[in-house]
Specification:
By secondary structure, the protein is α+β, with helices and mostly antiparallel strands. It has helices spanning 5-20, 152-195, and strands spanning 28-30, 35-37, 50-60, 67-73, 76-79, 88-90, 104-106, 115-126, 131-145. A six-stranded mixed sheet has the order 1-9-8-3-4-5. A three-stranded antiparallel sheet has the order 2-7-6, with no helix packed on it. Strand 3 (50-60) and strand 4 (67-73) form a beta hairpin. GO terms for molecular function: sodium channel activity; sodium channel inhibitor activity; transmembrane transporter binding.
Length: 209
Amino acid sequence: MCHDNDGIYRVKLLYMILVQLAVDSDTEAVANQGFKLGCISCKMRGEVPATAAVNWYFKASDDDEFSHLYSYEDLIGDVIDPRFYERLDWNGSKQTKDLQDGSIYILNVTYNDTGTYQCRFNRVLMYPNYEFQTNASKTIIINVVPRLTRGMASIFSEVMMYVSIIGLQFWLVVEMVYCYRKIAAAGEEALRETCSFPVPVLHLQIPLS
């Protein structure tokens, strides 16, 4: 990482963008079948330890407010909304508290499941001297249909997802090159200062007898 405020700011900004980038879920669910609600929130630096909690919320088409649907934290999942008892499974990251995939799976979809779903990631990055908290959310509008159809909006959304991922990876490479050049320039400057440091000359006077 660069040792200047501008570089740190750019890296943090890139992290926030990557964290909030989530793979789009389908928007049509088929009645009486299973359906996956996808929600992915990735870290920029995998070597930084972290913990995360995922909470899902649901607002039916005839509801005015969101209700707490599901919670997953410390390897424990909890179905909170009674409308989804015994019909909801965790489909995200396994055997880790550092969650990056917060997807869930609805069993035996009904027409009453039509509505708006919201996934919320709460992550804590644990650095040696401090902790950094970040939040990310994703909203998915689901329509339950008798049979599956795929429209142009879904295809366009998938294409844009891959374009965004490639663009952000290119940005990350540019940031890494920028940081490397800054560090190399700082090292050369320090070397020049060392070489140009005046060496004291001692003049000794030896008395003649």
